[in-house]
Amino acid sequence: MPITVTAPRGVLTPAGEREILPRLTDALVEASGLTGNKTFLSFVGGTVHVLPPEDVYAGGVNRPVVMVELKLPNIGLPTPEARAAFIQAATAVVEQLTGPGHERENTWVNILNAPDGAWGIGGRPLTGEQLIETITAGA
Fold first, then answer.
1. Among 61, 66, 23, which Cα is nearest to 44's?
2. Among the four given CATH numbers 2.120.10.30, 3.40.50.150, 3.90.550.10, 3.30.429.10, the one describing domain 2-137
3. What is the pTM of this model?
4. DSSP E strand boundaries for 30-88
5. What's the pLDDT tens digit per position in 66-98?
6. Exposure on the CB side of residue 78, measured as CA atoms within 13 A
């Protein structure tokens, strides 16, 4: 379940650039109700993209937006409450890891769902049912 963070250089603190993915991973695991499940945890990965500030836009203008994008199977975060919990937690993580002056409205969180069987690891597409079986077996 990839998490992609895109931020203008200088908005995240140096420690924030290193800590944001582990902390967003924890937020996803908690919002999923799967704290302690090592199999689920092993399915979460991500990247941090730090771009020149002049390359980040919102509303058609240059703006210091930090974008957090989560891609997961359609069984992930299945309720509006679970999605809201992740969005709120991810926003809090960004707030804790940015420098002074970063405004809350400049943190965007986006959740994308892959259709059943359109998510996989190691060349093996997994259905929602297969993922649930695998994660449950790892509990």
1. 23
2. 3.30.429.10
3. 0.90
4. 45-51, 57-58, 61-62, 66-73
5. 999 999 988 889 899 999 999 999 999 999 999
6. 7
